[in-house]
Write a structure and sequence with these properties.
six-stranded antiparallel sheet; alpha+beta
Length: about 210
């Protein structure tokens, strides 16, 4: 906890939500923030439009990723593209289960951050395509997922009230193929089998701000 607190202060305080890691540190930095539940801070760094950052490259009309934030050396050097894992695992929420390699079981745990109103991703696993797509309209949250045959997932739905979560119009706790596990840190956790699901919930106050 003290190390995390120091990291958060370093990013949000001294560096005003700008990244300071490079081609070695960016991947472990983003993974550490994701695992600590600080995807809001990961997004804050990603959304910076000035130096240093990815959007700074885009603002200068570059279509490749640089080796260094200041544009020195290679201007087509994909190492800093490692942040792409965070789009899949944090924003869309498709995360492998280390106890079930190969996506026989996996997690769907999307993060609603910043001013984003939607995110989606697919992963073609050895068992079939995994899909996760969410949208938000104010406090209304919708999560559409697809779980391949012969697999299972633990789905985490952000909500202020687990009792109000629905799946395809019915209470989620009574939906076919869905088992309610627990409520944890503003999320309702479910175990689901293969198939397609549509979850709806009301976001906790302040989500994504």
């Amino acid at each position: 906890a003290p190390v995390l607190a120091q990291l958060v202060e370093s990013i949000s305080g001294a560096r005003k939500n700008h990244i300071s890691a490079g081609i070695v540190g960016t991947l472990p930095l983003y993974r550490a923030l994701m695992e600590a539940g600080r995807d809001d801070l990961a997004w804050a760094m990603l959304a910076q439009e000035d130096f240093p950052g990815w959007l700074n490259m885009l603002r200068q009309d570059w279509t490749t990723i640089w080796e260094a934030w200041n544009g020195e050396n290679s201007l087509n050097h994909p190492t800093l593209g490692c942040v792409g894992f965070w789009f899949y695992e944090a924003l869309a929420g498709i995360r492998p289960d280390p106890d079930a390699p190969g996506f026989k079981r996996f997690f769907i745990q999307p993060s609603v951050v910043g001013a984003l109103t939607c995110a989606s991703a697919t992963h073609d696993s050895m068992h079939g395509r995994i899909q996760s797509a969410w949208t938000r309209d104010g406090e209304r949250f919708t999560l559409e997922i697809s779980i391949p045959a012969n697999t299972a997932a633990r789905v985490s739905v952000p909500t202020r009230d687990a009792e109000s979560v629905t799946e395809s119009g019915a209470p989620a706790s009574k939906a076919s193929g869905v088992t309610f596990l627990r409520i944890e840190s503003g999320r309702a956790i479910y175990s689901v089998g293969s198939g397609s699901y549509s979850f709806h919930s009301t976001l906790p106050a302040g989500t994504g701000h």
